[in-house]
Amino acid sequence: MIEFLSIPSISSDSTHKADVRRAAEWLANDLKNGGLRHVQILETAGHPVVYADYLTDENKPTVLCYGHYDVQPVDPVDQWQTDPFKPEIRDDIIYGRGTSDDKGQVFMLVKMAETILEATGTLPVNLKFCFEGEEEIGSAHLDGFVDAHLDLLKADVLLVSDTTMLGMDQPAVSYGLRGICGLEVRLRGPKGDLHSGVYGGAVQNTLHAMVDLLASLHDHHGRVTVDGFYDQVKPLTNEERKVCETLSDDDALKKELDVDTLYGEEGYPTVARIWSRPTLELNGVYGGFQGEGLKTVIPSTATAKITCRLVPDQDPALIGALLKKHLKDHLPAGVKLEVELMDHADPFIMPVDHPALQAAHNALEKAFHTKAILSRQGGSVPIVNTFHDKLGLAPILMGFGLDSENFHAPNEHFHLKNFDRGLRALTEFLFELSKQMN
């Protein structure tokens, strides 16, 4: 795994295009060495997909394992304690970019198959692998790839190890994901930056206008004020609220995040706000002078990046349209508005009585010696909808990372204890699934 993690497969950076391919080649070679068959590197209009399979009996259920071998950028580099692409193990924790998201968990899926093949010479189910290199840039070409390879990817169950557990010793199997709607907002004022002494007080300050516009998106109780934003949101059932109240540990979360207080939509326990309520977040706001010291200008432009996490049955396209209307209706005088809709993905939820979910529960309990919790995830995994809608696959989201492991941030890491227990859970899952679905 150290070699795999050492490859800087940053899909968003064109200067690393060769590294992304090198990671695909490394992964394909490891699959071959692990006894998998029909290993291929399949091209897309962007980064390639790595495919492999082991098909034993058409009467057995088929599991399609998904993961991604691309990683996030490492900025800011100066906040890493060690080189992000020179993995180190300290106190049974491995540090490096991709350890938790998602190379470490992809490696587990490969070793799951290899372990069973070495021990028994065959597999209890049919197995296919689809590992992509563009998840961190929105899986831009995966839909087209799936459309072009429907027969190749045909299966019964989708197994994804790109989610998190609820705690170090508390495994979870997820049945729901939030969707996403992203946009970039740009305001334009005067034709160029202006001297604040010469023009201050005579023209709209574009940054002031942006602050006013963004402030209109929430009330003082954490609720989104966009008309129609909540119209499609189903209320929590009493059982869902009770589970969220039980799992919410605000003091522990404040300690983990080093904050004095938590914040969010009033009237809901913290876990409910993360799992089951929609949000609207500012991801970046910038404009004007950013350098050291002062530069007395009135900026001509200002930009904000926004993402909304959506819950069933919210439609990302509708939410995007509602946001554009709100921004237009609340636009301060003296500036022009541009809105560009960007990433989007539907929320997802599956029936909780599916036999594959029961197989996952049984496997996790055997590996962790405690009952798994049926959970939702606050994040989005857009490919789940792709595989479900195009191939009819029931997704099992069984990941082994922790929310505190700094994925997408400096000093990303992965607990090797959970690598070991997770590997056992994955192998048990294939045997349990064979029992549940035969």
Percent range for helical residues?
25-40%
Mean pLDDT: 95
- What is the distance, rounded to the nearest whole angstrom, between the alpha carbons of the first and last residues? 34 Å
CATH superfamily of the largest domain: Zn peptidases
Strand order of the largest sheet: 1-2-6-3-7-17
Q: What CATH architecture of the largest domain would you give?
A: 3-Layer(aba) Sandwich
Number of domains: 2
Task: Tell me the fraction of residues in β-strands, as a range.
Answer: 15-25%
Globally, the shape reads: globular
List the quaternary state of the chains. Answer: single chain
The CATH C-level class name of the largest domain: Alpha Beta
Number of DSSP-assigned strands = 18
Structural class given helices, strands, pairing?
alpha+beta
Stretches where pLDDT falls below 50 for ≥5 residues? Answer: none
The largest pleated sheet is described as: 6 strands, mixed
* CATH third-level topology of the largest domain: Aminopeptidase
Total DSSP helices: 14
Q: If you compute it from the alpha carbons, what radius of gyration comes out, rounded to the nearest whole angstrom?
A: 23 Å
Description:
- This protein is an alpha+beta fold.
- It has two domains: 1-177 and 347-437, Aminopeptidase (3-Layer(aba) Sandwich), CATH 3.40.630; 179-233 and 278-345, 2-Layer Sandwich (Alpha-Beta Plaits), CATH 3.30.70.
- The protein has 14 helices and 18 strands.
- The protein has helices at 2-5, 17-33, 103-120, 142-148, 150-153, 196-199, 206-215, 238-247, 250-257, 270-275, 316-329, 355-368, 382-391, 416-437; strands at residues 37-42, 49-54, 62-68, 88-90, 93-95, 126-132, 157-160, 172-177, 179-188, 194-195, 279-286, 297-298, 301-310, 336-345, 348-349, 373-377, 394-397, 413-415.
- The strands form five sheets. Strands 1-2-6-3-7-17 form a six-stranded mixed sheet, with helices on both faces. It has a four-stranded antiparallel sheet with strand order 11-13-9-14, with helices on one face. A three-stranded antiparallel sheet has the order 4-5-18.
- A hairpin with a 6-residue loop joins strand 1 and strand 2.
- Helix 3 crosses helix 14 (416-437) and helix 12 runs antiparallel to helix 14 (416-437).
- The longest helix is centred in the C-terminal third of the chain and has 22 residues, at 416-437.
- The radius of gyration is 23 Å and the shape is globular.
- 44% of the residues are buried.
- The mean pLDDT is 95.
- It holds the Pfam family M20_dimer.
- Residues 175-334 form the Peptidase M20 dimerisation domain.
- One of its GO terms (molecular function) is peptidase activity.
- This is Acetylornithine deacetylase/Succinyl-diaminopimelate desuccinylase and related deacylases.
- Keywords: Hydrolase, Metal-binding, Protease.
